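Supplementary Methods. Inverse-folding protocol.

Structures were first reduced to a discrete structure-token string of length 213. This string, shown here, constituted the complete conditioning input.
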């Protein structure tokens, strides 16, 4: 994961990312280089998560042009007041929320195609890369093998473009090997085969050595 965060740092270098992070007080100037190269893992993870949250807040401009009035989505209001699984599932299954979600996805896809010019396109690509990293972490913490394979596939492009030579060379091969496992080996991977935990607390697993990026 530190290698991927280093690739993220390479992608954002010279974009003004460092200035935003330091001037906002998220990270001190003396630590910004370690954040950019992924050496300070926890600090870099916090910075990227907060930057992703900031970009999501900027996307609130979508509400100005949406045909769905967010004030008339009671399931979302209930979820905001009480964030739990039942309220989340109720919101997910709501027809009005599905329409709102589809509109938002179309809006972000338009940004990816350059609909709001190059600057917005660049920052939405950064947001997508952070989302890929978080998906990879989720797969490990939940020991979700299918999600792990999917996230490995998503990580390849950035590692290649950032000239992380060894990862760019071997990660695609690793992905192909994972998708071609014998049924017995795949069953073992599903059964907590690539992550470990010292307790039974959900979603606190860590990767077995050799299964991290």
């Amino acid at each position: 994961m530190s290698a991927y965060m280093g690739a993220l740092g390479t992608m954002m270098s010279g974009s003004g990312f460092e200035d935003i992070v330091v001037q906002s007080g998220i990270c001190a100037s003396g630590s910004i280089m370690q954040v950019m190269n992924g050496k300070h893992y926890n600090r870099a993870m916090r910075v990227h998560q907060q930057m992703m949250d900031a970009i999501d807040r900027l996307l609130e401009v979508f509400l100005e042009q949406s045909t769905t009035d967010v004030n008339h989505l009671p399931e979302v209001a209930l979820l905001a007041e009480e964030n739990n699984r039942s309220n989340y599932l109720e919101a997910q299954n709501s027809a009005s929320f599905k329409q709102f979600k589809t509109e938002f996805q179309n809006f972000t896809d338009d940004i990816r195609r350059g609909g709001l010019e190059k600057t917005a396109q660049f920052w939405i690509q950064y947001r997508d890369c952070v989302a890929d990293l978080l998906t990879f972490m989720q797969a490990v913490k939940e020991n979700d093998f299918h999600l792990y394979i999917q996230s490995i596939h998503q990580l390849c492009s950035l590692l290649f473009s950032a000239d992380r030579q060894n990862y760019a060379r071997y990660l695609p091969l690793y992905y192909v090997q994972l998708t071609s496992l014998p049924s017995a080996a795949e069953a073992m991977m599903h059964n907590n085969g690539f992550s470990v935990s010292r307790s039974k607390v959900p979603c606190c697993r860590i990767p077995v050595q050799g299964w991290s990026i």
